Amino acid sequence: MRWIMAAFYAFAGVVHLAYPAVFMPVMPAWVPYPHEVILLTGIAELFGAAGLLTRRFRWWAGVMLAAYAVCVFPANLRHAWLDIVEAQRYGMLWYHVPRLPMQPVLIWWALYSAGVINWPWRRAAVAQGTSAH
Known about the structure:
Number of helices: 6
Radius of gyration: 17 Å
Structural class: mainly alpha
Largest sheet: none
Strand content: under 5%
Distance between the termini: 15 Å
């Protein structure tokens, strides 16, 4: 799971750095220096991906990627609003309907794959009287 998440964030980081203009329309108006923020998010994604692959920085990478997923949620909401409500692009429902509820899963996944949390499997293993590892 950790390797898949690292690949996902590495890919996202490269896209943010290579094509920042794609993300400009979904940036909330209250975000200062939106172009720079997009570039910084790409760098954060790359560092997070790299951190997940190390023992030394794995825990911090998981915490930071989870926090990152919380912070970008307003942009995800805005993107859905612009596509579905304002532009009436209902064909984008295939993207937005799973994307928005997937955000808590991404937060959990970052924390779990970095070893910050071990829920729900640890609890089940303890209940059965076995170890989680």
